[in-house]
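Protein Record: Sequence and Backbone Structure Tokens
======================================================
Tokens: labelled as protein backbone structure tokens, with as many entries as the chain has residues.
Task: work out the structure tokens from the sequence, keeping to the layout shown below.
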Amino acid sequence: MIESKIEGVSFQPLKVISDERGAVLHMLRNSDPFFKVFGEIYFSEINPGIVKAWKRNKKQTQNLAVPMGIIHLVIYDDRPNSVTSGVLFDCILGRPENYNLIRIPPFLWYGFQCLGEVPALIANCADRPHNNTESEKIDPNSDFIPHNW
């Protein structure tokens, strides 16, 4: 189990049921402690070596899982009233070793990079539909966040 060093970020190991035919990959149920309300589900594909960063949602909570491929996820907390303000956290997500659900609450910067030689697929079950006016983006190479891809 991965432990987050950022207030409000949490992980849940996900169940995989597999046999010689393939696998069933669980992600989120309405009875899970992570589940608040359904907003939308979408998938983000990221090609090998590519970085998608930095983004911050003002209202939307992300519930991410990586059913295909592997990513390096980085989260940065710059919330002024957070006990973990200034903390940078990173982890590896994806199958088979790191199939987890990660919950990212609003106002945290996050980004990811695809590791390996095949594209990764990130599933997001958000608690509200995406709205461009409720999110912010900055350049992946910004000096604002103390991380170099």
Q: What stands out?
A: Residues 73 and 112 are 4 Å apart (CA to CA).
